[in-house]
From TrEMBL, chain A:
<keyword id="KW-0408">Iron</keyword>
<feature type="transmembrane region" description="Helical">
    <location>
        <begin position="616"/>
        <end position="633"/>
    </location>
</feature>
<protein>
    <recommendedName>
        <fullName>Cytochrome c oxidase subunit 1</fullName>
        <ecNumber>7.1.1.9</ecNumber>
    </recommendedName>
</protein>
<dbReference type="GO" id="GO:0022904">
    <property type="term" value="P:respiratory electron transport chain"/>
</dbReference>
<dbReference type="GO" id="GO:0009060">
    <property type="term" value="P:aerobic respiration"/>
</dbReference>
<keyword id="KW-0186">Copper</keyword>
<feature type="transmembrane region" description="Helical">
    <location>
        <begin position="232"/>
        <end position="257"/>
    </location>
</feature>
From TrEMBL, chain B:
<feature type="transmembrane region" description="Helical">
    <location>
        <begin position="182"/>
        <end position="200"/>
    </location>
</feature>
<dbReference type="Pfam" id="PF00510">
    <property type="entry name" value="COX3"/>
</dbReference>
<feature type="transmembrane region" description="Helical">
    <location>
        <begin position="97"/>
        <end position="114"/>
    </location>
</feature>
<dbReference type="GO" id="GO:0004129">
    <property type="term" value="F:cytochrome-c oxidase activity"/>
</dbReference>
<dbReference type="GO" id="GO:0005886">
    <property type="term" value="C:plasma membrane"/>
</dbReference>
<dbReference type="InterPro" id="IPR024791">
    <property type="entry name" value="Cyt_c/ubiquinol_Oxase_su3"/>
</dbReference>
<dbReference type="InterPro" id="IPR013833">
    <property type="entry name" value="Cyt_c_oxidase_su3_a-hlx"/>
</dbReference>
TrEMBL record, chain C:
<keyword id="KW-0249">Electron transport</keyword>
<comment type="similarity">
    <text>Belongs to the cytochrome c oxidase subunit 2 family.</text>
</comment>
<dbReference type="GO" id="GO:0004129">
    <property type="term" value="F:cytochrome-c oxidase activity"/>
</dbReference>
<dbReference type="Pfam" id="PF02790">
    <property type="entry name" value="COX2_TM"/>
</dbReference>
<dbReference type="InterPro" id="IPR036257">
    <property type="entry name" value="Cyt_c_oxidase_su2_TM_sf"/>
</dbReference>
<dbReference type="InterPro" id="IPR034227">
    <property type="entry name" value="CuRO_UO_II"/>
</dbReference>
<protein>
    <recommendedName>
        <fullName>Cytochrome c oxidase subunit 2</fullName>
        <ecNumber>7.1.1.9</ecNumber>
    </recommendedName>
</protein>
Length: 658, 205, 307
């Protein structure tokens, strides 16, 4: 045994994680953990936490959990970004060691995409999609909870990597053969592959869930062409997830097997073909960028029509253009590697298909502008993000078209021009959209508004900080600076622009602080939303009280047209005219610990495999099997909510007649 | 969205479709199968790309023995037929017949897996593991993933047998049997592709 | 050629726009992508300018409509702009904005395809100088099969002659990029990819790897010296006579995971660069059809027949 302990110590805490800053963070985490444990025990919150949150299957609570995770991950990814900018601000600096820099840019990209943007999107899906379509829950509430816990434990597995064992360091794309054992020993990349496989399973299940929800669970009368645009975007995103994530899972699993079990898919020797990984990865990766942006097209469509007090312009065209983007997005993946020798014919084809996808996207921009045309624009924070999105996304899209020009891409590829481009569309499209949706639906989720004045401060900091950060990066690309560079020599003329860029990053950091302050302040002192319809909304979720009761709709509404709630208000109707005899017993899903335990078991499997502690991995695997068996034999997965309970809840909200 | 069917039409549907919730579950299972199609699609494309990367290892022609493969094909195709008979029995409400066909399906599936494992062990005995070449890696993961699916299916069928014994044919168990049959037919289709594009192709070309 | 006709008028406009950016940050020559010295880089730059112009048109149109809408239709008391809450369709407008981007993209797409195919072939007029490039872990190995010399982290090329790089890797992937000569191409293990570049001006340029490959990858900068053909030949024969040869032992030393400075070798072992005989895939078949027989050492085959 004595020799085992040093081995364990060296495996879990190799020299690569013994940096002073990481030790400091370890210390902070331990103290915060002890503090949290003490607080929870002192206030006797454990039972509450378990009953109300860890075992919940309610889509509204799962949305809140997704949201918390996303904001925490935004913090982590943002810290990574600030560290990167600090390192790059001046030439030949050594703000941190090169090995650590490599880990930081890898975790920055991976976390922002898989553990920030995706859960944030799912938070919005969960928060409002069932409400918008007049449903009591998603199609599979338990699977919804499993998705969340798989994502959450995948994220935890990924995030413990910087504390023990060492973080992944091969970039968020993790191209082999650099991820192979020959060049990358240690557990770092195992973390990446396992965490993404586990979280990816959860994402795939979310895709299945929301596709079935939007296809099968809509209220009577809500035909496809009467769905709110956000529901359309949910449906299309879910379909994209269904088709995009399996190739990723396969590619990740193969890379993992190369590392753990000595197979030879992408190795240098024995005929391995790294190119195959690149193809599979981008076969996922390109639809993924549309998975990241199409939901926000939906958010913007809702926000722009609400705050222009006007119907969405060109609804059928909006639907057609989203469907066109969905189909085309599977035919553009090679544009991520024009310079990998696919030959001129292939490159020309994929260059053209990439330009083609710009057309439906451009059409959407025009439709949003003409939704405002002839409306009455209210400059709320949600609308400000929308207004910032249009010019930002247009410029990002324009630089995207420049990258689609194949010969030009030979000069832009992997340069800071590319970096600026994709941050331009991901921040301008995805992050602005997420924040717009957050401000828009916050009253529905939490029952109070986010303070508008503070929100505007955060908005302007984000917007200005964004442009100060990324405009110089376009120019750096033209000066030949390439991505993932640890440091650069003096005399290239790169440092002035880098200093400006770092300054912008600091402003964006301040914006994040302002955002969190805004959230905390509003939770404590925010203006309560008593009507349930603070924005004079158009879609069904605003017909409900805020926050929404567990069963959502006491009586399932019947839909007769688009913007159903707006039309009801125009006719002087409301859902508040509920008669006691309309209320019936409701079948609700029962809470269950299985999703949480399943996620925890997968975490154990992942942890065991990361360090090749096979007994631990097998224990986790047994846990997974037990969870699956238990849910197979569990027939008591729902309970009946009595009509009396619903009547008294509705009466206390003042929505019951008589 | 409720199905746009009149009440008497709903009555005529099979048990698992008549129940709104179970019918949604079946839609969900189809969606799951879509993702599985994509998984196998990715594995097939990997195999297609790597099928000549023999490195120092044996070629497909040297490795494959058609005898066991024919046996596996026969077993799996027959099991697809028996699970079909099982669903037929379920539609007629015959619990015992259903359980018999399900058991037979499991046994045929087990025969398939045993033959396949035997085949793989014989490959390993001559040193043809996935460590040897990219071709063998791609072959092993494609056929192995299919085999793992079949193995999982056998255990799934076992749990269904237990549930049937306890509860008989209800909307819920009927839905489970129906989704299991979809899964099993799907694996059969995948095997036909493996048989054609991997084994036959490897032998002929 | 289509884009040639458009060149003159828009060029001044784009350069003016770019100049604003340059003035704010000083030396314009450091915008290497905008100052190509060879035909490949120039063609790529022309396309960038064309695309930038077309996109500028889109941006101007969108921004005009956008700012007009945002300013005119604010929800302020006494706003006299028409309020039409149910106006949601206009056939002609919607047709217009399918057609407008499509038209602009067509203008970009046609020269894109033309140039893509054009740059895939070394011009037939001149025999190119061939350089076999192997990216090693954090260093570049350049072998000159015609001159029988090898260099590390240093390139010397003749001017006004196409240079054909054959790229492979004995390491994770890297990307060879010499921005002032033209675009980049990946180096990949088990594959050989082609890239041709040309310098029309003598001078010293820089190149690097644009693909991350480990902790030392930022040390993969190298100098590229372009000299007239006569000087190049003199340099090559001087290296051939005065430098030490690269033996297999030296090559194995290069394979170590470290960084190093410039080095010159008078000879190099044959099998340090892959040939078709060693089972490697040679791609970019079109480029090589005209080259068959020009180089005795490697037999080029189209991709479909390889393996």
């Amino acid at each position: 045994m004595p020799s085992f302990l040093p081995y364990l110590y060296h495996t879990l805490f190799p020299p690569t994680v013994r940096y002073p800053d990481i030790l400091l963070i370890d210390f902070g985490l331990i103290m915060a953990g002890i503090g949290l444990l003490g607080f929870m025990t002192k206030t006797r919150r454990w039972g509450w936490l378990w009953r109300e949150w860890l075992t919940t299957v309610d889509h509204k609570k799962i949305a809140v959990m997704y949201l918390i995770a996303a904001i925490v991950m935004l913090f982590r990814g943002g810290i990574d970004a600030e560290m990167l900018r600090a390192q790059l601000a001046l030439p030949t600096t050594k703000f941190m060691p090169a090995a650590q820099y490599d880990e930081v840019f890898t975790t920055h990209g991976t976390i922002m995409i898989f553990f920030m943007a995706m859960p944030f999107i799912f938070a919005l899906f969960n928060a409002v999609v069932p409400l918008m379509i007049g449903a009591r829950d998603v199609a599979f509430p338990r699977i919804n909870a499993m998705s969340y816990w798989l994502f959450a434990f995948g994220a935890i597995l990924f995030n413990i990597s910087f504390v023990i064992g060492g973080s992944p360091n091969a970039g968020w794309t993790a191209y082999p053969p650099y991820t192979g054992l020959a060049f990358n020993p240690g557990p770092g990349e195992n973390y990446y592959f396992l965490a993404l496989i586990i979280a990816g399973m959860g994402t795939t299940m979310t895709g299945v869930n929301f596709l079935v929800t939007t296809v099968r669970m809509r209220a009577p009368g809500m035909t496809l062409m009467r769905m709110p645009m956000f529901v359309w975007s949910t449906m299309i995103t879910s379909a994209l997830i269904l088709f995009a994530f399996p190739p990723l899972t396969v590619a990740l699993a193969m890379s993992l097997f190369d590392r753990l079990f000595g197979s030879s898919f992408f190795t240098l020797t024995r005929g391995g073909m790294p190119m195959m990984y690149v193809n599979l990865f981008w076969l996922f990766g390109h639809p993924e960028v549309y998975i990241l942006v199409i939901p926000l097209f939906g958010v913007f469509s809702e926000v722009v029509s609400t705050f222009s007090k006007k119907q969405l312009f060109g609804y059928p065209v909006m639907v057609v253009s989203m469907l066109a983007i969905m189909f085309l997005s599977y035919g553009t993946w090679v544009h991520h590697f024009f310079t990998m020798g696919a030959g001129p014919a292939v490159n020309a084809f994929f260059g053209l298909s990439t330009m083609l996808i710009a057309i439906p996207t451009g059409v959407k921009i025009f439709n949003w502008i003409f939704t405002m045309w002839g409306g009455r624009i209210q400059l709320t924070v949600a609308m400000l993000y929308q207004l910032a999105f249009i010019p930002t996304f247009v410029i990002g899209g324009a630089s995207g078209v420049m990258l689609a020009v194949v010969p030009a891409d030979y000069q832009f590829h992997n340069s800071y021009f590319l970096i600026a481009h994709f941050h331009n569309v991901i921040i301008g499209g995805t992050l602005f959209g997420l924040l717009s949706g957050l401000y828009y639906w916050w009253p529905k989720m939490f029952g109070m508004k986010l303070n508008e004045r503070q929100g505007k401060v955060a908005f302007w900091l984000f917007f200005i900080g964004f442009w100060i950060t990324f405009t110089p990066q376009y120019l750096l690309g033209l000066k030949g600076m390439t991505r993932r560079l640890y440091t650069y020599p003096i005399g290239m003329g790169w440092h002035e622009l880098n200093v400006i860029s770092t300054f912008g990053a600091l402003i964006m950091g301040a914006a994040f602080v302002a955002l969190v302050y805004n959230i905390v302040w509003s939770l404590l002192y925010g203006e309560k939303d008593l009507t349930g319809d603070p924005w004079n909304g158009r879609t069904l979720e605003w017909a409900l009280p805020s926050p929404v009761p567990e069963y959502n709709f006491a009586r399932i509404p019947v839909v007769h047209e688009r913007d159903a709630w707006w039309a009801m208000k125009q006719r002087g109707q409301s859902l508040a005219d509920l008669k006691p005899e309309d209320v019936r017993d409701v079948e609700m899903p029962r809470n269950t610990p299985i999703p949480f335990l399943l996620g925890a078991s997968f975490f154990v499997v992942g942890f065991g495999m990361t360090f090749k502690f096979w007994p631990i991995a097998i224990m986790g695997f047994v846990g997974v099997i037990l969870c699956i068996l238990f849910s197979g034999f569990d027939y008591e997965d729902h309970h009946h909510l009595k009509a009396d309970v619903i009547r008294s809840t509705e009466a206390s909200l003042g929505r019951l007649q008589g | 969205m409720s199905l746009p069917l009149a009440e008497e039409q709903v009555q005529k549907l099979p048990l698992e479709f008549a129940d709104e919730k179970e019918s949604v579950n079946i839609t969900g299972f189809w969606m799951f199968l879509v993702t599985d199609v994509l998984v196998f699609g990715s594995l097939f494309s990997t195999y297609a790309v790597m099928r000549h990367s023999y490195a120092m290892g044996p070629t497909a022609d040297q490795l494959f023995k058609m005898g066991p493969v024919m046996l596996e094909t026969l077993l799996l195709l027959t099991s697809s037929f028996t699970i079909g008979l099982g669903v037929f029995a379920m539609r007629k409400g015959q619990t015992r017949a259903l359980m018999f066909w399900l058991l037979l399906t499991m046994l045929l599936g087990a025969g398939f897996v045993t033959t396949e494992i035997h085949d793989f062990v014989s490959f390993a005995a001559i040193g043809a593991t996935w460590h040897t070449s990219a071709f063998l890696s791609a072959f092993d993961i494609l056929v192995g993933t299919h085999g793992a699916h079949v193995t999982f299916g056998i255990f799934w069928a076992l749990t269904l047998l237990l549930q049937l014994r306890k509860r008989g044919i209800t909307a819920r168990t009927a839905r489970k049997i129906y989704t299991f049959s979809l899964y099993w037919h799907f694996l059969d289709i995948v095997w036909i592709f493996i048989f054609t594009f991997v084994y036959l192709n490897g032998k002929i070309v | 050629m289509l884009f040639g006709r458009f060149r003159k008028p828009y060029r001044a406009l784009v350069l003016a726009a770019i100049a604003v950016g340059l003035l704010s940050t000083g030396c314009g020559q450091q915008y290497v992508v905008l100052h190509p010295v060879g035909p490949v880089g120039e063609k790529e730059l022309h396309l960038m300018e064309l695309a930038a112009l077309a996109m500028a048109i889109v941006i101007v149109i969108v921004f005009t409509l956008y700012f007009y809408a945002v300013i005119r239709f604010r929800d302020t008391p006494g706003n006299r702009a028409p309020y039409r809450p149910d106006w949601h369709t206009n056939k002609w407008l919607e047709v217009l904005w399918w057609v407008l981007p499509a038209a602009l993209l067509t203008v970009i797409a046609i020269p894109t395809v033309q140039v893509t195919f054009e740059l895939a072939h070394v011009p037939k007029a001149k025999d190119p100088v061939v350089i076999d490039v192997t990216s090693l872990t954090w260093k570049w190995l350049f072998e000159y099969p015609g001159q029988h010399i090898a260099t590390v982290n240093y390139l010397e090329i003749p001017t006004n002659v196409p240079v054909l790089f054959e790229l492979t890797a004995d390491s994770p992937m890297n990307t060879l990029w010499i921005p002032q000569l033209g675009g980049m191409e990946y180096t990949m293990p088990n594959r050989v990819l082609p890239l041709w570049l040309q310098a029309n001006k003598t001078g010293v340029y820089w190149g690097d790897s644009a693909q991350y490959s480990g902790v030392g990858f930022e040390k993969m900068f190298f100098k590229v010296k372009a000299v007239p053909m006569k000087d190049f030949d003199a340099w090559a024969s001087q290296v051939h006579t005065t430098s030490t040869p690269m033996t297999l032992a030296v090559y194995h030393k290069l394979l170590r995971h470290d960084t190093m400075g410039k080095a010159l070798y008078s000879r190099y072992p044959r099998d340090t660069f892959p040939t078709i005989a060693s089972g490697f895939t040679l791609t970019g078949s079109g480029m090589y059809m005209t080259m068959n027989g020009q180089k005795g050492r490697i037999v080029y085959m189209p991709m479909s027949r390889s393996n």
